[in-house]
Amino acid sequence: MAARLNRQRTSRAAVHAALLLYTLVAIGPILLILVNAFKTRKAIFGSPLSLPDATTFSLAGFQSVLAKSDFGLYFMNSLTVTVVALVLVLMLGAMCAWALTEYRFAGNTLLALYMAVGIMVPIRLGSVSILKMMVDFHLVNTLAALILVYTAMGLPLAIFILSEFIQQVPRDLRDAARCDGVSEYRIFYAVILPLIRPALATVAVFTMVPIWNDLWFPLILAPGRSTQTVTLGVQQFIGQYVTDWNAVLASLSLAIAPILLLYVLFSRSLVRGLTAGAVK
Fold first, then answer.
1. Is the pLDDT of residue 134 over 80?
2. Which residues are CB-neighbours of 140 under 8 A, at least 6 positions away?
3. How many angstroms separate the CA atoms of 208 and 90, rounded?
4. Coil vs helix vs strand at 280
5. Distance in angstroms (rounded) separating the CA atoms of residues 72 and 254
6. From CA 109, how far away is CA 154, in angstroms rounded?
7. Cα separation of 235 and 81, whole Å?
8. What is the CA radius of gyration of the chain?
9. For residue 176, what are the CA distances in angstroms to 17, 99, 181, 182?
10. How far from the centroid of its chain's Cα atoms is residue 7's Cα?
11. For residue 133, what are the contacts with CB-CB under 8 A and spacing of at least 6?
């Protein structure tokens, strides 16, 4: 019995050590950026792992970002694209998942498989065709082009995750609402959506992070100065021969802030949604 307990403790300690190591690997680069954003250029290269003190503390990077770039414009562009695309993904994804899960019609299974293919095939493989389409519709250098692409990119995964959660809602609950004369729209908005809020939070995080961090499509579809996003705007501080590392780290720190805020606000719902999916 004692030997079994020792093995369990050893196994538990090994698991916690592995998780701690993974946490350090995942969070380490973020902490390194945040710490060095408040240091002088000499301190960044001289002691990158040390915390800023009275001699190394500097706000030169943030001053450079605010003075030499339209960071406020880039931030608002990223925020607009991310929020609008996120709302569309959640709204359209939930409605599509409800239709595929609740109703049986010709092509139901085929449509579900078609949506699943969207998860497996990277959307970047169609960059040339997407660019040609946006040129034909005169949407190049507009935020609408990015919103449309990101909505299409996020829908397959959103539909897949939300479908699994909607299937967990007891059918008796939906049938009882129908017996009371509740319309299908009311069942969806008043019964289904409140019950799948953890899943919506999970989808929101999985959708927002790739959109906010993406550089590929802003570089192709919206490289104009008035439509640049944060990730594209940071590139102006990176030159072929000279790079303003203070400004780069400062701008990256400002770009990280919304993601950290999102996790703080929705961490409980995110964990609950991931756990429910794991149990299923």
1. yes
2. 131, 134, 221, 222
3. 11
4. coil
5. 10
6. 20
7. 19
8. 23
9. 49, 19, 9, 9
10. 39
11. none
Q: CA-CA distance, 89 to 221, in Å (whole number)?
A: 20
| Model confidence pLDDT, tens digit, residues 201-255 | 888 888 888 899 898 999 999 988 889 998 888 777 776 556 778 888 888 888 8
Task: Say if residues 47 and 230 touch (Cβ distance below 8 Å).
Answer: no
Among 168, 161, 171, 163, CA closest to 201 = 161
pLDDT in tens, 171-195: 888 888 888 888 888 888 888 888 8
Per-residue DSSP letters for 27-92?
Answer: HHHHHHHHHHTTB-HHHHHH-TTSPP-TTTB--HHHHHHHHHS-HHHHHHHHHHHHHHHHHHHHHH
Let me know the angle formed at the C-alpha of 225 by 220 and 226, rounded to the nearest 5 degrees: 105
SS (H, E, C) 147-207: HHHHHHHHHHHHHHHHHHHHHHCCHHHHHHHHHCCCCHHHHHHHHHHHHCHHHHHHHHHHH
- On whether the CB atoms of residues 255 and 230 are closer than 8 A, the answer is yes
- What residues does 76 pair with on adjacent strands? none
- Write out the two tokens for 163: 């479908």
pTM greater than 0.70 (yes/no): yes
